[in-house]
Amino acid sequence: MRCMSFALENCEKKDGNYTFSDLLRYNFYLPFFFFGPIMTFDRFHVQVNNTQLTRKEREMWNITSKALVHLGVILVVDVFFHYLYILTIPNDMKLVTKLSDWCLAGLAYSNLVYDWVKAAMMFGVINTVATLDHLDPPQPPKCITMLYVFAETHFDRGINDWLCKYVYDYIGGDHNQIFKELLATICTFAITTLWLGPCELVYIWSFFNCFGLNFELWVAKLFSLPPLSTIERVMGEAMSRRIRGLFNAANFWTIVLYNVLALNNLEFAKLVGKRLIFKGFPLSSLSVLLVTYCGVQLVKERERQQALLDDPEPVKPVDGGKEKAE
Questions:
Q1: Where does this protein chiefly localize (predicted)?
Q2: Please, which residues have CB within 8 angstroms of residue 146's CB and are 6 or more apart in sequence?
Q3: Closest listed residue to residue 261, CA positions, set 212, 298, 315
Q4: Which are the contacts of 59, defined by CB distance < 8 A and separation ≥ 6?
Q5: Cα–Cα dist 171/13, whole Å
Q6: 39, 32 in Cβ contact below 8 A?
Q7: Which pLDDT tens digit goes with each residue over 110-126?
């Protein structure tokens, strides 16, 4: 994937070509070489050739604290995973069938948390080393608890950036046209399937994730058309937020079920789906949905507040043109 990124960027270069030493330096930079993440060549080349190397205030303190935190998390998780058999329990179907609905839901959720923690630790340690080299590497994956849309579901931001730059965004454009989005997602997941290794489980995983990504666009397009858009404006912002939160809660569990396929097996994913949707209805289904709904609303409120902090509204002039600031 690094060689493909180098070749594509070299084709786009207007003046001359990149050198073979640029390829070697990009491909065999040791922290990224062993475990990733994949940084596209254009970003890597600009950062490596930056001659104005400066440290921000307290940057070394932040790097040291992150390194200590990652070391502590590695030790804690290593102990936990020796006693909490998160990955082996789903393989014992006789045991799994005896578990309650809540245990099954928690086990499925814990599997994704396990994968996120593993990726966050691995990429976090590597990113700490890369930051010492004055690089700005791709960040660790977003926590699974904060995912409620398929567009943000990725456990490797480096691979995600690579796919978006060279396939998904290149074909899909602004991602507003249904057919271009469908073509872009099919091509993206076709490459992802080849990367993961074609097999029945990967085919199913790719199909459902591709469908989920497109289904979000179809629903958004549907609700932007009258009379649904008119009804949403009439019902008010608060009620609209609650209805969207309900859809996002259901979306969260589809993300869990689809990605449990890749981490465990098809039988376990089918069992979780049947117990939560059919056999557990209405008590278990609605209870799990209610808890997830509350979590999604908290996450969305946090994101809204963070957006206000990142992009505050301009201060409006009051009292004859003078500005007040709290």
A1: endoplasmic reticulum
A2: 299, 303
A3: 212
A4: none
A5: 20
A6: yes
A7: 888 888 888 888 888 88
As a whole number of angstroms, the distance between CA 29 and CA 33 comes to 6
Both tokens of 285, joined, read: 């289904």
Determine the straight-line distance between the first and last CA of the chain, rounded to whole angstroms: 50
Is pTM, for the whole model, over 0.70?
yes
**Sign of the torsion formed by the C-alpha atoms of 124, 128, 129 and 135:** positive
Paired tokens of 236: 């008010």
The runs of H, that is alpha helices, within 165-282 are 169-172, 178-196, 200-223, 228-235, 237-263, 266-274
Burial of 318 from C-beta contacts in 10 A (0-12 / 13-18 / 19+): exposed
Token pair, residue 93, equals: 């179907």
d(CA 118, CA 124) in angstroms, rounded, equals 10
Q: Which two tokens stand for residue 202?
A: 């990967």
What does the pLDDT look like over 128-182, one tens digit per residue?
Answer: 888 888 888 888 777 777 888 887 777 778 888 899 999 999 998 888 888 999 9
